[in-house]
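Table S2 (text version). Query chain:
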Amino acid sequence: MNERRQSTKTITVTALLMAMNIIMSTSVLSVPVPGGHMYLNDVIIVTAAVLLEPLYAFLVGGVGAFIGDMLFYPTPMFVSLAVHGLQALVISLFVHRWMKNRPVPASIVGAIVGWVITFTGYTLGRAFVYSTPAYAAAKFPFQVLQTAVGSALALLLCWKCGVVKLYRKRFAP
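Corresponding structure-token output:
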């Protein structure tokens, strides 16, 4: 029974974070930049990756970003699925598997690796989707900034504002 209750809690938290990722993918909650918008969904993706096991982190990051793009701007939705899914998966693997005895350094290393995955993946994805490397190059600085700001805010929320502590107290097995 306890395992079933834990599973229900995990699914609920995953769904909530996925919904937050979708909401943060909208232009209404973005910052206008030359050539488009800077979105703040990396805050949710990195937070989810620190809190959740890899599969659930992938669902929040990849599937959440995919649905957000599908609803609001479908052209890069498969790029978002792959890039944000991999970003969340790798961060979660650092925190929950590879460096699990040192969660704060693990989340920092994971966020840095996720940052590289995200700006590299989106740059290559944009060059492919829009068939022009020039567009991808123009967006590159803003992608780097978006991912860096989102990761930094997420790590502050998780470790300085106590989100991890609260999550573990209420939802951890």
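Notes on Table S2: The radius of gyration is 16 Å. Strands lie at 31-33, 36-38.
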